[in-house]
């Protein structure tokens, strides 16, 4: 691989996989960073491994942290994941699947690795349109974090690092994200987005993430190759 190194936050979901493909298409050498943070949908890490191998990365690191010690989210605590009949039922309220400060924590790990790699580039798949209302997915949050990051590292203070947080999906709809990924040859059957998969890892089809993903594929006129509901579950 040739090109500048970049840290790419990779959950194994649709958005982060598309971002990895974008980073590669722009000539960066991607270093994929995933997290085992106590999430109930830890099967996403298997997807992240598949994606990293298929798309090609210089290295794939899975950082082990445990946000269950704080809880406060349906993804890390004994709180039920909400389910709905369709995406139109979703509201503007911040849902219980919000994990407190998750993107701030993830970006801090990415910043640390970028400094070690001599990189000024971090890619993240946040989206401010077809998303679930998370405060750490907004453009103003990304701008603020980038400003802070330049003050936070030795490399930044010495002028060797001027962090750029790339959020290429932030103003795209889910359908536009899928079109971009398809154009780049992304195989979405490798990905996993469900917040509440069954014991066999099959998507529920009715959580916020599944519904937004399904609507995006429908708007593009495609079937989601990864959204297969388990027997007896809505999907």
Spatial order of strands in the largest sheet: 3-2-1-4-5
Q: Please tally the helical runs, counting DSSP H or I stretches of 4 or more residues.
A: 7
CATH class: Alpha Beta
CATH homologous superfamily descriptor: HUPs
In CATH terms, what is the architecture? 3-Layer(aba) Sandwich
Please give a handful of descriptors for the protein shown.
alpha/beta, Rossmann fold, 235 residues, globular, five-stranded parallel sheet, 11% strand
Task: Chart the SSEs and their pairings.
Blueprint: E1 5-9, H1 14-25, E2 29-36, H2 44-55, E3 59-64, H3 102-117, E4 121-123, H4 139-149, H5 154-157, E5 164-166, H6 174-183, H7 208-220
Parallel strand pairs: 1-2, 1-4, 2-3, 4-5
Helix pairs in contact: 1-2, 1-6, 6-7
Notes on the protein architecture:
This protein is α/β, with parallel strands linked by helices and 235 residues long. It has a single domain, classed as 3-Layer(aba) Sandwich (Rossmann fold), CATH 3.40.50. The chain has 7 helices and 5 strands; from the N terminus they run E-H-E-H-E-H-E-H-H-E-H-H. The radius of gyration is 17 Å and the shape is globular. The termini are far apart.
Brief summary:
With 235 residues, the protein is an alpha/beta fold. 33% of the residues lie in helices and 11% in strands. Strand 2 (29-36), helix 2 (44-55) and strand 3 (59-64) form a beta-alpha-beta unit.
